[in-house]
Amino acid sequence: MHQVFIRVFLVLFAYFATASAHAIVVQRDSDISWTLQGCYTDTSTSRTLGGSSAISDDMTIETCQSFCSEGGFNLAGVELGSQCFCDNGIQATGATADIANCNAACSGDDTEICGGEGFINIYWNGAPQTCLSFNHTTTSNVQAVYVSPPTTGPASVPIYALIIFLARGFAFEILSTGFNAFNFVSLTNGGLKATSATQPSRAVSLSALPGDSPTFVMVTPLPAALPAYCMMPNPFPGQDGTVLAVNGRSDLWALCANTSAAGRVDLVFDPIPNHPRYELANCRSVYLTLTDA
Ligand SMILES: *[C@@H]1O[C@H](CO)[C@@H](O)[C@H](O)[C@H]1NC(C)=O
Ligand SMILES: *[C@@H]1O[C@H](CO)[C@@H](O)[C@H](O)[C@H]1NC(C)=O
Questions:
Q1: Which of 134, 135, 231 to mutate to test the pocket of ligand 1 (most atoms within 8 A of CB)?
Q2: How many Å apart are CA 168 and CA 264, to the nearest integer?
Q3: Nearest-CA residue for atom 1 of ligand 2
Q4: Could you count the other beta carbons within 10 Å of the beta carbon of residue 113?
Q5: Which of 48, 85, 186, 262 is the most exposed place for a label (fewest CB within 10 A)?
Q6: Could you tell me the CA-to-CA distances from 34 to 135, 154, 293 in Å, in that order?
Q7: Where in or outside the cell is it found (predicted)?
Q8: Higher pLDDT, 290 or 126
Q9: What is the pLDDT of residue 82?
Q10: Where exactly are the structural domains of the chain?
């Protein structure tokens, strides 16, 4: 009995120790950073990015991004190896496509991909934004809204705090589209709390590390929530409202199919290549809205 308690304590302690060593690092490059928005369809009669264009035997993603930046555009797209297009919004004629369609090597660097035939890889210059608020204390539902809505199915999905590990006296949760415990969150002083109408027990944010699902812990007494979150303006072109951010980034969320959980779709902050539990190709960019319940 005593031993079990000590083991549980050690696991918890180790978890907290690693989490606090990584979680609160606010890293925001002051340099312009471009993020891939996805692979889109494009036609010569109706351009997906219609602002400005260039063609070069020496095209790279970076060359195109600088060209668009200099032209005052915040979207840059590469296509068919050597073409570059700029705009400040993705035109409605462009539809999201499977990333596999963007498969052409760049004419100026064959280790980079520059779109495909009739397909354009679009990058967005995520202008640095500051947190608007570290509080959203009303009980709220979280929705993951697809940056590029799928052609079929809903444009957004509810997010829950899902229990993934339950032991005597405590539990760990992650943010996921799966539901088994908590359907509400609130944000206080940068820390997230997960609750449900029926359960008086609550969980608090533990860590939100790049590449992984944000974690929560439920234990008595409840520790302070780790303050990695805030509300920011919606960073995506043409979208309004405030959205949930972690460590100063609101544009890096994705929904990924979790291969170690039978394909359950989990929320991931800043998905990485070669993760043991998801394929980057099976992740879709989302932003997170909080709606008062
Ligand atoms: C956020 O909420 C907490 C708890 O209600 C409060 O103590 C704190 O002053 C608030 N912070 C701001 C900046 O409003
Ligand atoms: C995937 O599922 C496992 C098991 O439930 C969980 O530990 C992990 O946090 C999930 N998400 C990711 C991104 O690995």
A1: 135
A2: 25
A3: 258
A4: 19
A5: 262
A6: 28, 27, 34
A7: Membrane
A8: 290
A9: 98
A10: 2-26+129-292, 35-124
CA 98 to chain centre: 18
Ligand 2 atom with minimal separation from the 165 CA = 5
Rg (CA), the chain: 21
Ligand 2 atom nearest residue 277's Cα: 14
Give 259's DSSP letter: G
Nearest to 122, CA basis, from 53, 73, 82, 75: 75
- Lowest model confidence (mean pLDDT) among 18-32, 68-82, 118-132: 18-32
| The residue count for the chain | 293
Q: Ligand nearest 136 Cα, by number?
A: 1
CA–CA dist 210, 116 (Å, integer): 29
The partner residues of 244 in beta bridges, in order of sequence, read 231
Cα(266) to centroid of ligand 2, in Å?
Answer: 7
Query: What is the CA(42)–ligand 2 centre distance, in A?
Result: 36
7 band by pLDDT with thresholds 50, 70 and 90: very low
Spatial distance between the Cα atoms of 224 and 21, rounded to a whole number of angstroms: 15
